[in-house]
Automatic annotation (TrEMBL):
Family: Belongs to the ATP-dependent AMP-binding enzyme family.
InterPro entries: AMP-bd_C, AMP-bd_C_sf, AMP-binding_CS, AMP-dep_synth/lig_dom, ANL_N_sf
This protein's record includes keyword Zinc-finger: no
A Pfam family annotated for this UniProt entry: AMP-binding
Gene3D superfamilies: 3.30.300.30, N-terminal domain of ligase-like (3.40.50.12780)
TM spans (from-to): none
Domain called AMP-dependent synthetase/ligase: residue spans: 47-414
UniProt name for this protein: AMP-binding protein
Keywords: Ligase
Domain AMP-binding enzyme C-terminal: 472-546
Length: 564
């Protein structure tokens, strides 16, 4: 089977040209015939529910300290139209990039759809990304508009963006959600109040959303260092959305909650596009608080919850400490390469729920366990792919637990191309290896058409989100007390990984607090930073001079077991 796209890229390509990539006509026809892609867009879903169930709840968004904001489908659709008009007023046109760096607020959902209405490309960025990384992301995107929060989690995002703006010539407008905006900024209330949908009605009505043009740019740290932008169409994302909706038989009766950031691929899928596709209700919190989450899930009658294993573990711990009535969940899932068996058992006991596992990448979609799998399957497998997605396990000889295969995916969920954040290198997926995308993980067959992940093929670190190892190593190495450093992952106890800096030092070695303070001062994203430091006389190297990180990982795991 051919790859997800087939595009002529003769002559090389830069980011702007890459945004014009499209799937081949044969792939469009094939994936539509499978039901994975469609001729419609999420805007058609919104129009349907606006007409059929205008007073049904579309979004329930909890704001810490401020209560809950609720939008009906009529209100939701009206805001999408208004925001599209506001963006058009700012000069946003088809193919231009709009960056969003916002917490879990309902405005994110509406802005994603507003960009689709115009044919603009939306680039969600999590609020944990700090100026050092943000500048490189915005520079690569050439974003014309950036919408951000005034201040969040103690960090002044608007002020930080203002400092970057003179070095970002493509950035024409900064839109601030919050109380204050400087003279050269736009307060978001100017998006919400004026009737922009009427001011630009004719122009907007002439635009036709296209599900097969690139509509989303989702940044990921990738498998080996430089973060990459994954260029997705609305349909390549819809393929994952439709797969979940079909597997779990979702419908208008469902209320969907997630602990994921809505400015991340997982949040876009579970807190925006799945509820919208089936006419259900999306529930999310701007600050994840397990105690309040349990109350909110019960209050809203949430039926489906997806979150990181750590979020599920927090809910279990909270309920054990303070038992109370539970939400009537019928579907629950967690994303990651490994979900611990005790957590699966705890959720089964406490929620009377079979936990499902999902695995994949921002670039290429992935797999999910099914209702017909054994009840504890999430602890033994990450499931199987949906229609239009293939898996290939490659190795030397027979694939076994002792000799796992490297995982490759291709098909309807794979992005059209990736773009290096720093190098700008454009890699069109179907130009390489017949469209097979290297996932960077090692796995074995699970016996039910899916796979079981056994480990990393490279030195990836992370749980739901991956750490850009090369970036962190380069930053730590500039500390005057560090001579050499290797950034290595170690288990966090919830199926994910935390960051350890293994360093050598000929002087007084820095402590963990020293290193984190040093990185904070340089604008390094906090969840990239080490949570553990180990000082060694020397790092192990191979014959070519590369650090043997597999030895360090083994040592860290053994040391963790000995000290716990």
């Amino acid at each position: 089977m051919a790859g997800a796209v087939a595009i002529d890229t003769a002559g090389g390509m830069d980011f702007r040209r890459a945004l014009g990539l499209r799937p081949s006509r044969s792939d469009i026809e094939r994936f539509r015939a499978l039901g994975a892609w469609r001729a419609e867009t999420p805007l058609d879903d919104l129009a349907r529910w606006r007409q059929e169930t205008p007073d049904s709840l579309a979004i329930v968004a909890h704001r810490a300290g401020s209560g809950v904001e609720r939008l009906t489908y009529r209100e939701y659709a009206d805001y999408v139209d208004r925001f599209a008009g506001a963006l058009y007023e700012l000069g946003v046109r088809p193919g231009r990039v709009v960056a969003l760096q916002l917490p879990n607020r309902w405005q994110v959902n509406a802005l994603v759809l507003a960009c689709a209405r115009i044919g603009a490309v939306v680039a969600p960025i999590m609020t944990t990304i700090r100026p050092h990384e943000l500048e490189r992301v915005l520079h690569r995107l050439g974003a014309a508009v950036c919408v951000t929060i005034d201040r969040w989690a103690g960090f002044a995002h608007a002020a930080a963006l203002a400092k970057l703006a003179p070095r970002l010539p493509d950035l024409r407008h900064r839109v601030i959600l919050g109380d204050g905006a400087a003279e050269d900024e736009i307060n978001f209330c100017e998006f919400e109040r004026p009737p922009w949908e009427r001011a630009h009605a004719d122009a907007l009505n002439r635009l036709t959303p296209d599900p097969d043009r690139i509509g989303l740019v989702l940044f990921t740290s990738g498998t080996s260092g430089e973060p990459k932008a994954a260029l997705h169409t609305l349909n390549s994302v819809h393929a994952a959305v439709a797969n979940y909706a079909d597997i779990f038989d979702h419908g208008p009766h469902d209320t969907f909650a997630t602990s994921s950031p809505v400015c991340h691929a997982g949040g876009i899928i579970h807190a925006n596009l799945i509820p919208l596709l089936v006419g259900g209700t999306a529930v999310f919190m701007d600050v994840w608080e397990p105690a309040r989450a349990i109350e909110l899930l019960a209050e809203t009658g949430t039926t489906t919850l997806w979150g990181a294993p750590a979020a599920w573990a927090e809910l279990v711990a909270e309920l054990r400490q303070r038992p109370r009535p539970l939400p009537a969940l019928r579907t629950g899932g967690a994303a990651g390469t490994a979900i611990l068996a005790p957590l699966v058992a705890d959720i089964s006991e406490m929620f009377a729920l079979t936990l499902h596992a999902a695995w994949g990448s921002t670039e290429a979609g992935g797999t999910v366990t099914r209702p017909d799998d054994p009840p504890d399957w999430a602890a033994r497998s990450v499931g199987r792919p949906g229609p239009g997605v293939e898996i290939d396990l490659r190795g030397d000889g027979t694939i076994t637990a002792d000799s796992p295969g490297r995982v490759y995916l291709r098909g309807c969920q794979v992005c059209l191309a990736t773009v290096g954040r720093d190098t700008g290198e454009v890699v069109v997926v179907t130009d390489h290896d017949d469209g097979w995308y290297d996932m960077g993980d090692l796995a074995v067959p699970d016996g039910r058409g899916g796979i079981r992940i056994l480990g990393r093929a490279t030195d990836r670190i992370g749980g739901s989100f991956m750490i850009p190892v090369a970036d962190v190593e380069a930053a730590v190495l500039t500390h005057p007390g560090v001579d050499e450093v290797a950034i290595v992952g170690y288990p966090d106890g919830n199926g994910g990984e935390l960051v350890c800096a293994v360093i050598t030092s000929r002087t007084t070695p820095p402590t963990l607090d020293d290193i984190r303070t040093y990185l904070d001062e340089r604008g390094m994203t906090q969840w990239y930073q080490p949570s553990r430091v180990e000082v060694v006389p020397e790092l192990p190297h191979n014959e070519t001079g590369k650090v043997r990180k597999e030895l360090l990982r083994r040592w860290l795991r053994s040391k963790a077991q000995l000290t716990t």
